[in-house]
Structures are given as structure tokens and as C-alpha cells.
Amino acid sequence: MFFSQGKLSVLMILLMSLVVVTVQADKLKRAINIDMATNSAGIKSQKKIDKYSDQARKALAEYRSALRQTETLVTYNRYLQTLIKSQKDEKTSLEQQLQDIETTQQEIVPLILRMLDSLEKFIQLDIPFLPEERQQRLQRLKEMVSRADVTNAEKFRRIIEAFQIENDYGKTIEAYRANLTAGDNTISVDFLRLGRVALYYQRLDGSETGSWNRETKTWDILSSDYRNAISKGLRIARKEAAPDLLEVPVPAAESVK
Predict the structure, then answer these.
(1) H helices within 126-205, ranges in order?
(2) Cα dihedral 57/62/66/69 (nearest 10)
(3) Domains in the chain: boundaries
(4) How high is the pLDDT of residue 44?
């Protein structure tokens, strides 16, 4: 079969177009394949990036957590160091206190005995008011000092209390009723104490009034002129009369040596 010139030209054009289309189709296919490969590689790369990003975030979170724990431990360690130092200081203080207590215990017993002896001598040399009450208090202190079940602190406190009671006697006046022994006779009288300055007595019927003589350690009978003054002093001491001046004999002041 023969083709004419014109038909042959058209056929050539068609063949060339087909070749071009085929070449372009191959290029497009290759481009598509390259693009798909690129996308696939991109997806793999993104997955790796995401994986590494997650690992990095986890590592950062772990680092921050470890940093916080480290700061907490450092702070707690400083606290423990301060606490340990405080405990050491307290231990040293307690050890020193125990040594001081032991020394004090050794020194306080002789002091208690000296104070008790001084109190006894003081009462003996004082004017003889409330003799039974004061001697009983002194005897109780002596018995207490020899007891093992009473602490030295309590013994010391009780002796100081006794000294305070004796000290208060010097700042008060007092009226009380008791027996007076003069020679072989014992009579009931009213006593009037003016601090530690003077001590008087008066029979209950007012028939006799006397005062304690510090020098002779005896009772002197006073003139009847002092009977009313002593009676008035007894009423004042009992709060039965208002405070007032009393004209009574008092011993002369002694010079301090």
C-alpha cells in the first residue's frame, strides 16, 4: 500500500507527536515518582524529627526535674547542716550545764548547812517572840535537810522562805497570847511585838506590864504608867484601834561594829 505525499506527512507528524507525548509521559512519571520518593523521604525525615523532638522534650523535662530535685536537695542539705550545728551547740551547752549542776550540787549542800546554822543562831540572839512557832519551824528544816527524798533545790527554797519570814517580822507589829514563864511561875499574858525593836507583855487583867531586856536577857516589870500605852498598842496590833503614836520605853540603838 502506498501513501501519498500528504498522508505521509500527517503520519510523520502523528508519530512524532506520539513520541513527544510518550517522552513527556515518561518525564511526568519520573517526576511523579521523584515527588513521591521525596514525599516519602520527607515523611520519614519528619517522623525522625518528631521522634528526636519528643526525645529532646523528654530529656529537657527530665533535666528540669533533676535540676529542681538538685536545688531541693541542696536546700535540704543546708537545713540539715544548720540543724546538726544547732544540735552540736545544744549538746555542748547541755554537757556544760551538767558539769555546772554537778559543781553546784557539791557547793549547795555546805551552803544549806551554813544557812541553817545561821538561822538558828539568829533566832537564839533575837528577842524571844513566838518561841514555839519559830523553834518548830527550825526543827522542821533540820529534819528536812537530812532527808534523801527532798531535793537540794527544795531544801534551799524552804530555808530561803524561813529567812523571808524572819525578815518580815522586823517590818510588822503583832499581838498574840501565850504563856510567860518567870522563875517557877507560868502565867497567860498578851505579848506586843514592835518589829524587832521591842517586846512587851501584859497580864490579862492589866495588873502587870513588862518588857524584854536585851542586855540581861530577862523581863523587866514596867511602871503602871505604861499600862494604857501597851493596852493601846495591843488593840492597834489586833486592828481594833486606828494606828497612833505610843509612848513606851524602847532599848537604845546599838552601834554597828
Answers:
(1) 131-145, 152-169
(2) 100
(3) 95-169, 173-250
(4) 75
Residue 140 contacts residue 165 (beta carbons within 8 Å): no
Provide mean pLDDT across the span 72-99.
Answer: 73
Q: Say if residues 237 and 175 touch (Cβ distance below 8 Å).
A: yes
Cell of 108: 549547795
Contact in structure between 235 and 241 (CB atoms under 8 Å)? yes
* Cβ atoms 194, 233 nearer than 8 A: yes
Q: Is 196 exposed, middle or buried (0-12, 13-18, 19+ CB in 10 A)?
A: middle
What integer is the mean pLDDT of 168-191? 91
Grid cell listed for 112: 544549806
CA proximity to 85, closest of 73, 77, 96: 77
Question: Per-residue b/e over 118-153, b at no fewer than 16 CB within 10 Å?
Answer: ebbeebeebbebbeeebeebbeebeebbeeeeeeee
